[in-house]
UniProtKB/TrEMBL annotation:
PANTHER family: 23S RRNA METHYLTRANSFERASE, RADICAL SAM CORE DOMAIN-CONTAINING PROTEIN
PROSITE patterns found in the cross-reference section: RADICAL_SAM
Coarse class of the protein's main subcellular location: cytoplasm
Record-level GO cellular component terms: cytoplasm
Similarity annotation: Belongs to the radical SAM superfamily. RlmN family.
Stated name of the protein: Probable dual-specificity RNA methyltransferase RlmN
Catalytic activity: adenosine(37) in tRNA + 2 reduced [2Fe-2S]-[ferredoxin] + 2 S-adenosyl-L-methionine = 2-methyladenosine(37) in tRNA + 5'-deoxyadenosine + L-methionine + 2 oxidized [2Fe-2S]-[ferredoxin] + S-adenosyl-L-homocysteine; adenosine(2503) in 23S rRNA + 2 reduced [2Fe-2S]-[ferredoxin] + 2 S-adenosyl-L-methionine = 2-methyladenosine(2503) in 23S rRNA + 5'-deoxyadenosine + L-methionine + 2 oxidized [2Fe-2S]-[ferredoxin] + S-adenosyl-L-homocysteine
Annotated organism of origin: Anaerobacillus alkalidiazotrophicus
Textual note on the cofactor: Binds 1 [4Fe-4S] cluster. The cluster is coordinated with 3 cysteines and an exchangeable S-adenosyl-L-methionine.
Primary gene name: rlmN
Gene3D superfamilies, per database record: 1.10.150.530, Aldolase class I (3.20.20.70)
UniProt EC number: 2.1.1.192
Miscellaneous section: Reaction proceeds by a ping-pong mechanism involving intermediate methylation of a conserved cysteine residue.
Amino acid sequence: MIETETEKPSIFSLQFSTLEAWLKDHKEPKFRAGQIFDWLYKKRVTSFDEMTNLSKDLRESLSNDFRLTTLKTLTKQESKDGTIKFLFELSDGYSIETVVMRHDYGNSVCVTTQVGCRIGCTFCASTLGGLKRNLEAGEIVAQVLQAQRSLDEVGERVSSVVVMGIGEPFDNYEPLVSFLKTINDEKGLNIGARHITISTSGIIPKIYDFANEKLQINFAISLHAPTTEIRSKLMPINKAYSLDKLMEAVNYYTEKTGRRVTFEYGLFGGVNDQEEHAEQLADLIKGLKCHVNLIPVNDVVERNFVRTSRNQIFKFEKILKNRGVNVTIRREQGHDIDAACGQLRAKERKEETRG
Ligand code: SF4
């Protein structure tokens, strides 16, 4: 077990208005907040000393109260299709992973919100070691910044962010919302709400809270099963938050925000990928403003899950289409590196243990 240091908060955990309040307390003018955000998010400096239009005293006060989080890159793997997978080290020694996916329409960054995860989905390597700790908002922001620094080298920018890396985002709710506001802020990373997607395994009370935040971001539910029996086998969270209550919460979300939800549906050979399951899924989501994203899941050796054949994936998709469901199949990226959630970290951990 790694000891967590007691440290100053990351400056990237501060939203603009919080920074203005801090400046007011330090008898500094409000406009300094704009200058500081400019150094952090536009010039992307790595130390307070580089903020040369601030007085030495102000730079000292900032560094007394905050740390300017930078993530140490332990490994950077680049796939033939351009996908980049980072393994970063946090200041207390834990490691997290972040993936940059390259699309024709831009670059998307997939961020991690927790070190490990306690949700226990049976198909997921990230949950095998349990939850170690939550990430600070600033540590999530720093992943996007580090990805942007890497893209700076080739003159490209991060155009979208997906919160689908390791961890359950709603199990770390306040830092998550702070992170979303900072990357969306035009004075921050200025990533449009419609270009941000978050996915949850279904922590129902937080779905209601999130609907009430009225953020215009894309919202996905990791559903993975058409019935409560199958979902409980794949996702133990279904025992705490049942499928019918989850559907009620999703319905509330779509009505409150006027936005559709995406249901993520990983296909597991023989478990949830048969024709009857497609019919059950169509029944379950009938009448909901939604979209289904079918995910061909990689084998999870530790859990004995196998991939669904391409033929079966297309059969499943066809049934949904015939039932009037809006459905797509997720394009796989980074196949030649360890791009499935948690695989890289699990591998590193094994190597650490072996070492
Ligand atoms: S799939 Fe996501 S929520 Fe489920 S155990 Fe893995 S990291 Fe946690």
